[in-house]
Amino acid sequence: MTERFKFSIAATDGKARTGSIQMQRGTIATPAFMPVGTAATVKAMKPESVRALGADIILGNTYHLMLRPGAERVAKLGGLHKFMNWDRPILTDSGGYQVMSLSDLRKLTEEGVEFRSHIDGSKHMLTPERSMEIQRLLGSDIVMAFDECPRADRPREEIAASMELSMRWAKRSRDGFDSGGEHAARSALFGIQQGALDEELRKISAEKLTDIGFDGYAVGGLAVGEGQEAMFGVLDYAPGHLPEDKPRYLMGVGKPDDLVGAVERGIDMFDCVLPTRSGRNGQAFTWNGAINLRNARFAEDTGPLDERCECPTCSTYSLAYLHHLQKSGEILGAMLVTEHNLAFYQSLMKAMRGAIAGGTFSAFAADFRRDYLKDRK
Ligand SMILES: [Zn+2]
User: Which residues contact 60 (CB under 8 A, 6 or more apart)?
Assistant: First the structure.
């Protein structure tokens, strides 16, 4: 029988770990990067191309899908996997973060969050129970607990009260998920640590989550504008509060150098819109740093985007052509650069997994930073 959820650590190097998560829809090599498929699509990419670049799992957004086309409709159409033609694992967020960042007229109570859709102004309510139900209707493989994510610069009492609320919601999420019958028997539930930049609150949050018990644990409430130094400051201790034998997921991160620094501190999973969003804006990530393809210096450059990259874009098209597509606002420009950016992120994860397995992660990280950050002062 295929495992519901089995995390195995094959090797460690310092705090960095590499291994795999076995699930019914497939195995996820860790550390893993999950491309973001917000509205049942990884923007500008066919699902088969996302897979061909090495993604084992993608992320779907509860908030967007509940509003359009609606979770009940997705369920009626056979679930998110069938609907979007992706048969491997999908992680869905709980909707909590995006309700707070995207919707209008929010009202936060013990029960949940009432809000108006940013699309048509219609009124909705998200609670831990409803979030679990929506993620079940979508057919999610990794379900995230419903939480609240306050801004990191709020007063400590506010951060503490919000974290306590998220922990009560984590318990309600656990109960809601567990009552999901067949779905609960084949999928997994992750809890989310909160506490912003406060070590004591992070510790309390981790203890409360561990008492409830989850298949994996996310470090939430980071990458919300606090900066890399503050984020790494939290990551110096926060993963250590979470169970060592469960995957640790850093939500919404990040830039390539964020990923390397976070893996170094014991993180196993990531998601971020950066490679796809940047791809549509003409920003490309390479082993020698990020570049803006709109820059005039590429207008007659016949070389590839990244000499070390073997993706379809780099092996076929010149910088000059990609520059032209960006300048002309052509859809193909967004498609080709998105494909390269996702390929680069997956190559970076694969290289990190190899370095950890080979016991050479610190040398890898030093080489990476030397090349990637060389233009930075
Ligand atoms: Zn490439």
Answer: 37, 38, 40, 80, 90, 91, 92, 93, 138, 140
